[in-house]
Amino acid sequence: MKKINFLNLGKHPITNNFLSTANPKNEFFYNLKLSYHTETKLISLNNFVPPKKMFNNKYAHRASASITMREAYSSLAQKIKKKFNSKSILEIGSNDGVFIKHFSNIKNIGVEPCKNLAELTTKMKVKTYDKFWTFQLSNQIIKKHGKFDVIYSANTISHIHKLDETFKAIENSLNLDGVFILEDPSLLKSLQKLSYDQFYDEHAYVFSITALKNITKKSGLEIFNIEELKTHGGSNRVFFKKIKNKKFKISKNVYHHLSNEKKFGIHKLKTYRDFAKKVQKSKESLIKIFQKIKKEKKKIIGYGATYKSSTVLNFCKINKNFISYFVDTTPTKSGKFTPGSRIPIKAYKGISDDVDYAFLGAWNFKKEILKKEKKFIKRGGKFITHVPYPRIISK
Ligand code: TMP
User: What is the pLDDT of residues 204-228, one digit of tens each?
Assistant: First the structure.
């Protein structure tokens, strides 16, 4: 049983640490390396960053920042209500309440360690525990509120370092017929799209279905259904039940996913070694694009100062010499500087007329952005993306 390092992405900052100055004194950096676990096939960061450095009362990400996500959470809430007829729901990582607020007519509890976010949902009258998810917290919650019909967690479980405890605490908090729904970026999609930017401090893990199956066995949970999502560039919504609950049949699509992953080689170290080589090539090619545009004295900005873009900028060493500034719709990011790369971030007010190129930091919202920026494209503006390979998009 062993973790084998297969990719070194260099020194990286805390992605959520948007800087107040372009020349900070003590910016924290860590070594971003990726590992493959020979037994569970789990892909993880080699060294984890202490959670309190990432998840604190200055947390900038708002899950409701895009129309795409607001609509996705609203329609999912309707679907869950219909499908499971649940009387109680717990959300682990409730962020700004974009999902849990839709359940005001039943028992709805949030868990959110970032106090600035927990305050938002408390104001929405959702009982929110501003703590990290642990077995101890699960006991505290069920003592007060009972067990739950549904536990939902999007883009959070992959952030929690102690997975065994996490899944045991979920099993502990579910009613016998209860369902746990996990949503996280798909490892298969990340490998296929060469989106190495799925890896950053918060994403301690990027899950395959294969690894999820392997690591949840001992907690008494099993996968019974999977839905593929377009969110975050390709995610899986994975439905778990208690192993002892025979009410839900295991869907054929679970076996289908497992066999697809096997065909791709998700269980083989060679797959990750090949991925690492392609990532190096992607870096070289992206830098060439930036250098060529700069030689032509054209102006490049960044579009969406995402966490993902932090990995690209710091790995490829793209800084203010290439990107004049970022535009971003999140109010808490504007007026700040991107971590590590230290590029100014401006509040989004459209793309200025003097901009020739915009690097798609928020490439996972490409469709929404291209639709919104028709005027920019019409006047000859172009986007730069690195997914699935570095290129310029002109329509
Ligand atoms: P996320 O990928 O972590 O959800 O972050 C998306 C970021 O991109 C968020 O800060 C908002 C920003 N963004 C824009 O600035 N403009 C847009 O049109 C979209 C869709 C996102």
Answer: 999 999 999 999 999 999 999 999 9
Nearest CA, atom 5, ligand 1: 306
Please check whether residue 79 is in contact with residue 73, taking contact to mean a CB–CB distance below 8 angstroms. Answer: no
Contacts 24+ apart (CB under 8 A), 216-223: 216/167, 216/240, 218/164, 219/164, 219/167, 219/168, 219/170, 219/171, 220/168, 220/171, 220/244, 221/167, 221/170, 221/171, 221/180, 222/250, 223/250, 223/254
Q: Dihedral of the CA atoms 97, 101, 106, 112 (nearest 10)?
A: 10
Handedness of CA 159, 164, 168, 169 (dihedral sign): negative
Specify the pTM: 0.95
* Residue of the CA atom closest to atom 13 of ligand 1: 304
For the record, the structure tokens of 301 come out as 């900005």
Tokens of 322: 């290439």
CA angle, residues 244, 247, 248, in degrees to nearest 5: 95
The answer, yes or no, to whether any atom of ligand 1 lies below 6 A from the CB of 364, is yes
Give Cβ neighbours of residue 110 (< 8 Å, ≥ 6 apart): 90, 91, 94, 97, 100, 118, 121, 126, 127, 128, 129
Cα 88–chain centre separation: 26
CA 352 to ligand 1 center in whole angstroms: 18
pLDDT digits (tens, 9 = 90+) for 338-392: 999 999 999 999 999 999 999 999 999 999 999 999 999 999 999 999 999 999 9
Cβ neighbours, 10 Å, residue 381: 18
- Please tell me if the CB atom of residue 373 comes closer than 6 angstroms to any atom of ligand 1: no
Q: What is the largest CA-CA distance in the chain?
A: 65
48 CB near ligand 1 (under 6 Å): no
